[in-house]
Amino acid sequence: MSFRMQGARVLITGGAGGMGRIYAERALREGAAHVALWDRDGAALAATVAELSTAHPRATVAGTEVDLGDTRSIVDRAQDYLADGGAPQVLVNNAGIVRGALFWDHEVRDIEGTMQVNAVAPMVLTRELLPAMIASRRPARILNIASAAGTIANPRMSVYAASKWAMIGWSDSVRLELERTGNDHVRVTTFCPSYVSTGMFDGARGPLLTPILTPKTATDRAWQAMLAGRPVRATPWTVPLGRALRGVLPSRVWDVVADKGFRVYNTMDEFRGRSGAGPSPRS
Prior knowledge:
- Belongs to the short-chain dehydrogenases/reductases (SDR) family.
- This protein is α/β, with parallel strands linked by helices.
- The protein has a single domain (9-281), classed as Rossmann fold, CATH 3.40.50.720.
- It has 8 helices and 9 strands.
- The protein has a 7-stranded parallel β-sheet with strand order 3-2-1-4-6-7-8, sandwiched between helices. Strands 5-9 form a two-stranded antiparallel sheet.
- β7, α6 and β8 (232-235) form a beta-alpha-beta unit.
């Protein structure tokens, strides 16, 4: 069952720029009535809201400065959102951060911050909004942006991979719970792309036969999967292939295939990230 965006309320985290902004533009072009953008960058958020409001005067575009590293803030802002207009019909859990480093070079704050923003924050936000989405009985969609890093291990991505493995397991479990309890008017899509050229993974190299996706291509594939209510969209084709091979090959055999064949294990050797150090936001 495809989903119609016309008149919908949409909430997007990491919405001030990058892929978050592209999702917002797509929702507005397709007739969304109210698009709420959450981001920690207040200046960028204000600029994006102003530009989108000018380009789409018939819709309401709202920005909320939220630190997804603060669970209490997420809960409070979610309750404000519900009180202001009710449940969203579309929730896009897009915001994310990454620190590419050997595990023992991570600071404790890197571990806590990555797990909080990439895994805990989407869970908390969805937990606050989902009961209202269920109760409304209106067709609704949740799009959770995971990563190919959550499907196979990779050196220099241990904490990021852990956060995305958590996202994938949680997201697909919620999908099953909704389906098995007769609440499948709310459909969950988990998006697992390989590297996307947003700046978040500057310096990373795509594995063999795996092009680095443009933000436009990535968001288009995620968006179409979400509208169609697909459970999972992994892209490009080498991502589900790698996951399947990892599942059937012995670990040492897979290591050789991944390392010498697909060259997966070298993709983060020259990683810099958006700022060259520290966590880089997707938004």
